[in-house]
Design brief:
Elements: E1 3-4, E2 17-18, H1 19-42, H2 85-94, E3 105-109, H3 122-138, H4 143-146, E4 149-153, E5 197-198, E6 204-206, E7 220-222, H5 251-262, H6 267-280, E8 290-295, H7 319-332, E9 338-343, H8 346-359, E10 364-367, H9 391-405, E11 410-413, H10 418-430, E12 437-440, H11 447-454
Parallel strand pairs: 3-4, 3-7, 6-7, 8-9, 8-11, 9-10, 11-12
Antiparallel strand pairs: 1-2, 5-6
Helix pairs in contact: 2-5, 3-5, 5-10, 6-9, 7-8, 10-11
Length: 457
């Protein structure tokens, strides 16, 4: 046997180490290193999946918001106060140090004159709010004249807040205030007439149409109580201070941030949504292997007979089209395990779940446990459609459905519904999965529909 001699001892002494022994030590070291690397790699998540324990690891999917780990089975929403990014910047501008200062300017979002009969649903309100917000932040695309405005709402009745026991009968029954500033900080109009400057001191301007121009030196601008629509902002990133052109930044990100800021639930509503999520989401649900099917029917369909709801806008697709969409995703990705099914229409929801269980029995169906399913998406008469169901229960149910779908990767939607198209937009920016894919069985032809379908225009 060949041996290696160490030191000055004679051959065969105890301080002579066998080459074979050294080879054995070297082999053990290599195996230990390989085992360490294998263990390390298996404990990292590079965005291709999620932990089956119900928590996304720190190295989560690229589209996840910065607050990781995020619990699959409990409430999560991006934080305006400490989340940073676009939503953090919005919060900072919306909450100035001195609301009463003469240099602090406002855009007051007025209710419509017939506000009690306003039929807009949650996402319609959200889109109006986020668009008015961009108007205020950019001061109607002329930020450089005198800076951003603070968006603030009036204190008239918000239809979905009738009978609120958690706060005022306004948007703030459910959601955090858009600003810490109060209506006492703004300049009140001295006349009920709209259009032009009210008073001779150039402090107030009430718009005839929300797209009208106005003097940027005016401290308080009021939206029109006669105009349901809003001013479209072209320079959406002008208020951020970021260099570059508009096309250098993500249009879907800023759209989602405005909506997320609007939909920040108050503490009582966060607790309600959290309890419903915990009751609905299985602990082992993997968002990367989940399809979301938010079915919008009832008063969205042309020819409906629901009194007090908005007129139908959609020739509602048959449920077979939704089922075919799920089949297409299953053919594309055989690893799919779950289907989240929600709808305000209880009949459609139950029928579709029955179809899934019959046609695709290998999939696990996840539903919104305790969903009110009020049978309408309109906001003016929510309490009238389900016996003994308060508005608060309806709103909590609807928002829970939205939160459940953030835990999906694939979606079957109709983009002619702002409700179902808002869900994949949120999922792309704030969801629990990456590489979002959408099948649109009722396509619309606008920018937001493009965001929902593919993430860009």
């Amino acid at each position: 046997m060949t041996s290696l001699r160490i030191g000055g001892g004679r051959p065969g002494a105890h301080n002579t180490i066998s080459i074979c022994l050294l080879k054995g030590i070297l082999l053990v070291s290599i195996l230990s290193l390989l085992l360490f690397n294998y263990t390390l790699l298996n404990n990292l998540d590079f965005g291709y999946g999620s932990s089956r324990s119900g928590v996304i690891t720190t190295m989560g999917a690229a589209t996840n918001a910065p607050h990781n780990p995020k619990s699959i089975t409990s409430y999560w929403w991006p934080s305006a106060e400490d989340g940073g990014g676009l939503i953090g910047k919005i919060h900072a501008i919306q909450n100035p140090e001195d609301c009463a200062s003469s240099t602090t300017k406002f855009l007051v979002w007025q209710s419509m004159k017939n506000n009690e009969k306003d039929t807009r649903g949650l996402t319609a309100w959200g889109h109006a709010g986020s668009t008015h917000l961009l108007h205020a932040l950019s001061d109607g695309d002329l930020l450089e004249v005198s800076g951003s405005r603070i968006l603030i709402t009036d204190d008239r009745l918000w239809p979905m807040a009738k009978g609120c026991t958690h706060g005022p009968e306004t948007r703030e029954c459910y959601f955090e205030p858009l600003t810490k500033c109060k209506l006492s900080d703004v300049d009140p109009p001295t006349s009920t007439s709209s259009g032009g400057v009210v008073g001779g001191d150039k402090k107030v301007h009430v718009l005839n149409k929300n797209s009208d121009e106005y003097d940027r030196a005016v401290r308080t601008v009021y939206t029109s109580p006669n105009d349901l629509w809003f001013r479209i902002t072209k320079r959406k990133y002008s208020w951020t201070g970021l260099p570059g052109k508009e096309t250098d930044h993500s249009a879907i990100d800023i759209t989602a941030a405005g909506l997320a800021y609007y939909f920040r639930p108050r503490k009582w509503l966060r607790k309600e949504i959290d309890g419903r999520i915990r009751a609905s989401i299985p602990a082992d649900l993997d968002p990367m292997r989940t399809v979301g099917v938010p079915i919008r029917r009832s008063d969205k369909c042309i020819g409906h007979r629901l009194e007090g709801s908005a007129g139908g806008e959609l020739d509602c697709p048959p449920l077979e089209k939704y089922l075919n969409g799920v089949r297409s995703f299953l053919d594309f990705d055989p690893l799919i395990e779950n289907v989240i099914v929600t709808s305000e229409d209880s009949t459609a929801c139950h029928e579709f779940i029955w179809m899934l269980e019959r046609e695709l029995p290998g999939l696990r169906v996840v539903r919104n446990v305790g969903d009110v399913q009020q049978g309408t998406g309109s906001g003016s008469k929510l309490e009238a459609y389900v016996e003994e169901s308060a508005n608060a229960n309806v709103v909590a149910s609807a928002l829970t459905s939205m939160h459940l779908h953030l835990r999906a990767r694939y979606f079957v939607i109709t983009s002619k519904s702002t409700w179902t198209s808002t869900i994949p937009v949120f999922a792309r920016v704030y969801g629990f999965a990456s590489q979002i894919l959408v099948i649109d069985i009722g396509p619309n032809t606008n920018t937001f529909a493009d965001f929902a379908r593919k993430g860009y225009q």
